[in-house]
Write a structure and sequence with these properties.
The structure is a homodimer. By secondary structure, chain A is of the alpha/beta class. The first copy, chain A, has eight helices and seven strands, in the order αβαβαβαββααβαβα. In chain A, helix 1 (about 5-25) runs parallel beside helix 4 (about 95-100).
């Protein structure tokens, strides 16, 4: 079974397309963020609260990936921004080619920010570059503090860790300090925001993080 | 990119080894159960409570899979049963070959029950037969009711759904009735147990389910 060379070939091809996407995003000054997490960590709810709060001056588009169903696209389309569901039909992660196909009929000049919600999976999406400026990993406090140690690749490759569902902290055996320590052991420079989509705690910091990334992304592109 | 034939070849080879494992388990009258779930759905805690409660007359062995760390094996070894960690080093699921290697130095005649805790991933482990008698999918109520629809393969291939962490029901927007309906839409015959490892609710039903499977497994083998 000669699997490694094939996996490498697939990843190389993915990286090539991701590189092209990154160039196209740069050309149109689009910040692309790739949200990854376990199933049910709260990515879609976080995106609902995010879209709800955006100033209309920020032109957002959303791609949301799932194995099956277009539930998430239906939930996210309510906010009036362009949303597309990518149904992978069994594939456990999004690939650059799927992004390329999904945006094929969009005018990229119409957008400032592209939010990609990956398939719920803490393993495989870490290997697939989608041309994003940054990966953001969402970890619910119901999942246990040890996840950064058990799934290090995802936390190592993410710039920001959103510790989600902190409203449940009184009811679960989860120590924030331990989770932060484990995340930083795997990735010392990772930024961390604690948040609850239910109560709204932490949402202003999250919104500020995106807006500050939007500004710095544009400045970096302008300086080129 | 000619991926489909390779994936089929890998799965075919896996099925071959899984078939051999199944024969060996039958020969030694071992019931093998394969526990699957998202990361953090509570498989290890459930196994802790399970091992704690087993009558010494049931001879159990445990294999626990993770990308990295042997935390789970350390947690599970406390109960005095043989436990082995399978560290996949990046692979997002257990494969039959890993089980074969892990049990190579065990005397199978010493066991009645082999509990396999798969890597936390609601997608890929559904495709890999490990020679088990049944897959059991654990879904935490914090993950949302829609997971059976979004990850149908896993629920379709599992005989039992453990709806876990029901102690958190008062604090999360999760409707048990809806979760049951969605699971049965994907897999009409799936059995369902509602459970909390924290409060112990549902644990007797879970324990009875395993014991009844042990009995019927032996009867089926004896009738052959």
């Amino acid at each position: 079974m000669n699997r490694v060379p094939l996996v490498q070939k697939v990843l190389k091809e993915n990286d090539r397309i991701a590189g092209e996407l990154r160039e196209r995003f740069a050309e149109h000054k689009i910040l692309c963020l790739n949200l990854v997490s376990s199933p049910g960590a709260g990515k879609t709810s976080l995106l609902e609260r995010t879209l709800e709060a955006f100033a209309p001056s920020i032109r957002v588009a959303v791609l949301t990936g799932d194995i099956q169903t277009d539930n998430d696209a239906v939930r996210l389309a309510r906010f009036g921004f362009p949303v597309k569901q990518i149904t992978t039909g069994g594939t456990c992660h999004l690939e650059a080619r799927m992004i390329e196909n999904a945006i094929a009929d969009w005018r990229l000049e119409d957008f400032d920010l592209l939010l990609v919600e990956n398939v719920g999976n803490l393993v495989c999406p870490s290997s697939y570059d989608l041309g994003e400026a940054a990966k953001i990993v969402v970890l619910s406090v119901t999942e246990g503090e040890d996840k950064p140690l058990k799934y290090p690749s995802m936390f190592f490759r993410s710039e920001l860790l959103v510790l989600n569902k902190i409203d449940l902290l009184p009811y679960v055996p989860f120590k924030l300090e331990k989770a932060r320590e484990f995340a930083r052991r795997v990735h010392p420079g990772i930024e961390i925001i604690e948040l609850s989509s239910l109560t709204g705690e932490g949402l202003p910091q999250w919104q500020q993080w995106i807006e500050s990334r939007l500004r710095s992304h544009r400045e970096a592109l302008a300086a080129k």
